[in-house]
Amino acid sequence: MLNVAIKAARAAGALINRAALDVEAVRISQKQINDFVTEVDHASEKAIIETLLTAYPGHGILAEESGSEYGAKDSEFVWVIDPLDGTTNFIHGFPVYCVSIALAVRGKVEQAVVYDPSRNDLFTATKGRGAYLNERRIRVSKRTQLKDSLISTGFPFRPGDNFQNYLRMMADVMPRTAGLRRPGAAALDLAYVAAGFTEGFFETGLSIWDVAAGSLLVTEAGGLVGNFTGESDFLEQQECLAGCPRIYGQLVPILGKYSKFAGAGEKAALRQAAPLQGSDAPAAPTETAPAADAASASPVAPAQDAPF
To answer: From the record, what ranges are coiled-coil (predicted)?
Structure first.
């Protein structure tokens, strides 16, 4: 099944690379403000679905553009597909985008492929068998201090997103780290956590096809994934936090109060806080909080065990 997913991802990647040679000729439409879809998204998704259903006609499909239109409706096997994660980057010629394919079996992600066609980087994982980049085993970063860590994120960009809340999150996190990055493709962000290129990642507003494959990469590489409060049942909660164990454990207490699942007291404290001003950003801490170990970072099982 993983080999079929790799074949599908490479077929989609070939289409994307051809279109990238003349990106200005690509037809673009807008799903909503700042949420774009191109003919390349549709062609990539079609190629992936055809490859998967040719091999497994009895499997279900959950894809970003076509939803559950194709495939079996009642299968225990469901392929979760983002045919082009990072569409906005793609249409600008900014080479940070990828194909994301995951296989969920009875609600648990068991196979994952994230393919970066511009670099020909292939990230793969099978549940219980580890994560790989171009057939080389990968592990999350060994860094244990947040002040030494590079953290990736995604900015709010849709109408109705709570931008002020995000600015407060960023002001809380940024001074405590070695740097904050916003590459623009969540599936690739998660793959980079798995490979140890970054120590952590957080973002709100993500859909299941953005995070399904990447979450398995992270956990199979020894990392942790959940929502901002550290709970693993996150796939459909539009809230994702991932990291190597020690850094994940330090991010949960910082980001947990911004979670929609935060306790009433934490939410009240945020509401009473003054509107974010430039002077309100917290100063860089003089001491780093004690590093939490993997066991205390999250009391729950890895994220891909969550049912849809």
So the answer is: none
Torsion of CA 282, 288, 289, 293, to 10 degrees: 130
Question: What architecture (CATH level 2) is domain 2-137?
Answer: 2-Layer Sandwich (3.30)
Per-residue pLDDT of the chain (308 residues; tens, 9 = 90+): 999 999 999 999 999 999 999 999 999 888 776 668 889 999 999 999 999 999 999 999 999 999 999 999 999 999 999 999 999 999 999 999 999 999 999 999 999 999 999 999 999 999 999 999 999 999 999 999 999 999 999 988 777 778 888 999 999 999 999 999 999 999 999 999 999 999 999 999 999 999 999 999 999 999 999 999 999 888 888 899 999 999 999 999 999 999 988 766 666 566 666 455 444 444 444 444 444 443 334 333 344 444 45
Q: Which of 297, 281, 212, 208 is nearest to 248 (CA)?
A: 297
Q: What angle do CA 238, 256, 263 make, to 5 degrees?
A: 100
Rounded Cα–Cα distance for residues 282 and 270 (Å): 14
**pTM of the predicted model, to two decimals?**
0.86
Is 150 marked as a binding-site residue?
no
84 is annotated as contributing to ligand binding: yes
Q: Tell me: is residue 64 an annotated ligand-binding position.
A: yes
Annotation: CATH topology of 146-305: D-Maltodextrin-Binding Protein; domain 2 (3.40.190)
* Segments making up each domain of the chain, as ranges: 2-137, 146-305
Taking each helix axis from N to C end, the angle separating 186-195 and 208-220, rounded to the nearest 10 degrees, works out to: 0
CA–CA separation, 187 and 82 (whole Å): 9
* Sequence-ordered strand ranges (E) for the chain: 28-32, 35-38, 60-63, 77-85, 98-105, 108-116, 121-126, 131-133, 136-138, 150-153, 179-181, 200-204, 224-226, 239-243
Write the secondary structure of 196-208 as one string of H (helix), E (strand) and C (coil). Answer: CCCCEEEEECCCH
